[in-house]
């Protein structure tokens, strides 16, 4: 079994982004990322802090706006419109989840598609579906980069995804399909789940249930990618029972230190690519 080091791969991607930022800077362009966070969700505050820190590391200007939880949709939309028209902003990120009083899809739709560095817009998702160039969702993009970095074959392999969210499960399936994997998506209504997960050469788990995937749910030698982030008895863990599953798989991502750092790295990469596109 080999542990996939997301921290190391993310550092490599950010180093490449830093070099691209230096080239852009010499040409008179500094990439900019605007971040909007609504409310005081502790996890979201940590994620935003990590994203702002990463921006500083590579040379991206960051603009962070923290809004109270009772902020109305029109106020957020006005702020997004301001960033849409700001030539110093190349990427706009609305940190999710939003308070339940707000319409998440409506707010995200206000972001200029060319600045949608999270890859959540209908247009970006549509381009992903059609196999066209786009700013693709950061977490599944990070998973693909991890597999490629470790030279893990994807083409012709059976990939099973547990979770069908718009942010991970669905775009993950499309990206694996584009790499010529045979893909199955499982979810909360899937019957005989373990019978399906045991067929996977590559198992991607994003279901939001701590230590849900057990040793007897994977096949010998499988590659296991854990996208989950949970707390059990105050300790951080993924959706996979790491200690038990690691005895049976060939590769596995830890939590923390696996997929998480890659999400931030791909956000940085998307922002740089947006800046390059806008400059050209």
SSE sequence, one letter per element: EHEHEHEHHHEHEHEEEEHEH
SS strand fraction: 15-25%
User: What is the level-2 CATH architecture name of the largest domain?
Assistant: 3-Layer(aba) Sandwich
CATH top level class name of the largest domain: Alpha Beta
Helix content: 40-55%
| Count of DSSP-assigned helices | 10
Poorly predicted regions = none
CATH superfamily label of the largest domain = NAD(P)-binding Rossmann-like Domain
Shape: globular
Structural class by helix and strand composition: alpha/beta
**Radius of gyration from the alpha-carbon trace, in angstroms:** 19 Å
- Spatial order of the strands forming the largest sheet: 1-11-8-7-5-6
The overall pLDDT average reads 95
Total count of domains: 2
End-to-end CA span: 45 Å
Q: Compute the number of strand runs.
A: 11
Say what the CATH topology of the largest domain is: Rossmann fold
Mind summarizing the main beta sheet?
Answer: 6 strands, parallel
């Amino acid at each position: 079994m080999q542990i996939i080091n997301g921290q190391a791969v993310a550092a490599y991607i950010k180093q490449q982004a830093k070099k691209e930022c230096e080239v852009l800077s010499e040409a008179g362009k500094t990439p900019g990322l605007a971040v909007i966070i609504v409310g005081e969700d502790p996890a979201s505050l940590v994620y935003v802090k990590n994203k702002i820190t990463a921006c500083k590391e590579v040379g991206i200007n960051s603009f962070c706006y923290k809004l109270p939880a009772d902020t109305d949709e029109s106020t957020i939309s006005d702020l997004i419109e301001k960033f849409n028209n700001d030539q110093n902003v190349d990427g706009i990120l609305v940190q999710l989840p939003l308070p339940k009083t707000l319409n998440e899809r409506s707010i995200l739709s206000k972001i200029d598609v060319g600045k949608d560095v999270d890859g959540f817009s209908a247009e970006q998702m549509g381009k992903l579906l059609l196999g066209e160039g786009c700013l693709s969702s950061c977490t599944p993009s990070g998973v693909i980069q991890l597999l490629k970095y470790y030279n893990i074959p994807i083409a012709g392999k059976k990939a099973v995804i547990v979770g069908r969210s718009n942010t991970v499960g669905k775009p993950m399936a499309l990206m694996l399909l584009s790499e010529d994997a045979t893909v199955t998506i499982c979810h909360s209504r899937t019957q005989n789940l373990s019978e399906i997960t045991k067929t996977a050469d590559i198992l991607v788990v994003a279901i939001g249930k701590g230590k849900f995937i057990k040793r007897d749910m994977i096949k010998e030698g499988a590659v296991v990618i854990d996208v989950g982030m949970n707390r059990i008895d105050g300790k951080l863990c993924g959706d996979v029972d790491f200690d038990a599953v690691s005895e049976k798989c060939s590769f596995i991502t830890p939590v923390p230190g696996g997929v998480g750092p890659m999400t931030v790295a791909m956000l940085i990469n998307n922002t740089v690519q947006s800046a390059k596109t806008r400059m050209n």
